[in-house]
Amino acid sequence: MNKDSLKALTNAHAWVGLVISTILFIIFFAGSISLFRDDINAWELNPHFAVNEQSETLILDSVINTVAKDYNINTHGYFILSMPTAEQPLANLYFEEKISADEHVDQHLILAPNGKVIGKGNGSSWGDFLYELHYDLHIPEVGLYFVGIVCLFFFVALLSGVVIHWRKIISKFFQYRKDGKKDKLLDAHNLIGVMGLPFHIMYAFSGLVFNLLIIYQISYAVVLYGGDQSKLLTAAGVVDVHLDETKIVLPVQGLDNLYLTAKASLGEVSINRVSIDHFGDESAAVTFRGADESQFSTRKEATYHIASGRELYLTKDNFDNDLRGGLSVISSLHFGDFAGYLIRVLFFTLGIGTCYIILTGNLMWIQKKVNLRVEKQNLIGLKVVYAMTTGGFIGTIFASAVGFVFARVIPIEAIGRSDLISYLFFGCLFTAIVVSLNIKAQKQFAAIFLKITAVILAITPILDWLFVSQGIMAMLKLGYYHVIVVEVMLLSLALFCWLIASRLFVNKRTEADEQITETINISVQEQTPLST
User: Are residues 391 and 436 both part of a single domain?
Assistant: First the structure.
């Protein structure tokens, strides 16, 4: 590649990275934490409903009878039971309660291993909030596709980065020049980027698959199946076992026998989810789903008509379809759930490393612009990038830290608890960006802001033991360490933030910073046009 082409590609790489940097940082930071989503949900909920016995098989018919007596379960809604497992002692039941003909309420009940209802978990969704932030930014309808487009640009940035660095990828692999600031940032950016390249490619690709799947589906349906989506779904291995409602009321019973039938039919499968379609109707069907522990990323399920016990569907080999099996493999790689905590810790480390890559990329761009003559600057744009890097990046970590604190201190039964925590998160993030836009000393502000964030992250484990120490001890005695896992993660993030504050940012602004800041202020006040 000649010099001009390389320069053009480098500029394209920088601008693509800059445009998507804040959103990409949020996606990777929330995604890294979401690798421990089950642990976070257990950390938030389990200490409030500590049990004294190990997990055992639920008596499903007893659970159904108890819940059906106390709640008017919506026949047309969902009914999902997450079973107790070796990692999770409590069962979680999710269903839709019918209040009136047009009004329905989502319910989340917590069940002890013996099937007894011990509380409600409607407000305990902090782990799920972070996960949804990762894949759709909590933007209704379009958020999923927006994140998919960001993943596409991330993929482009990856490929361009490899091409730019290709000639020196071996000879300069371990290079780290700690004396020059720009060189130090560049070497860290390149080193972490190259070491994590397979990880980054996997996440960029799987993010595209999950978030833009509807686009592929529409394209295939139009091009290959003449617009017949039913043929597409059949080819994709989606088995339709839906039965039409009969409008005949029939109590749900006999699930324990069907559970044993499913266990015998599915083989070495740990059934962890039971769902019922058309609850209370004669057409009701139950689906048992679980993972085959003898194979990599293999999920199986069996569906039965409850009234007659007739088998409607039985998986014989990972959803009986190469496409569904392939998507299951991609899903396992994306969520890191195929090799216990070790692989999740590795993915978490690489995810936080990716956040550092995004940060160093922005800082290099800022440093490059700072070193130019002031008259050649787009000063407003520089100030916005500066502020978004400080307020957007650190603000995301700060808002998450605040979310963890309030997820611990707000009573689990408080009305509107999950909504309040989500409002606090977005309020903290928005405030951080606004404050950053109005701060002159960006580097000093960033250093102080990071240290405050580190302190808040470190306070959360202390609050755990102040508020729910008895519940934590009860869970630890039974061998459930979710709280400890989350605390270690938070303390690791606190250390990361403190180190970045101490080493990446300096306490004094350079003359260039002072000159640019002063010029920006004068330009804004006088409303003079700025050259690009």
Answer: yes
Residue 314 main-chain phi, psi, to 5 deg: -140, 120
Residue 363 lies in a domain: yes
Residue finishing a domain among 320, 349, 376 = 320
Residues 344-395 pLDDT 10s = 999 999 999 999 999 989 988 888 877 765 555 667 778 888 888 999 999 9
158: CB partners within 8 A, 6+ apart: 197, 200, 201, 204
Shared domain for 31 and 171, answered yes or no, is: yes
In a domain, 215, yes or no: no
> What end-to-end distance do the CA atoms of the chain give, in Å?
28
* Cβ 20 vs Cβ 393: under 8 Å: no
In a domain, 229, yes or no: no
Residue 137 backbone class (left: φ over 0; alpha: ψ -120 to 50; beta: rest): left
Whether the model clears a pTM of 0.85, i.e. scores above it, the answer is: yes
Instruction: Say which residues have a Cβ less than 8 Å from residue 72's Cβ, sequence separation at least 6.
Output: 97, 98, 99
Judge if 288 and 360 occupy the same domain.
no
d(CA 204, CA 156): 9
Q: Which domain holds residue 314?
A: 54-113+238-320
pLDDT digits (tens, 9 = 90+) for 409-452: 999 989 899 999 999 999 999 999 999 999 888 888 999 999 99
Note whether 421 and 494 are same-domain residues.
yes
Measure the CA angle with vertex 33, ends 30 and 34; round to 5°.
80
User: How far is Cα 149 from Cα 155, in angstroms, rounded to an integer?
Assistant: 10
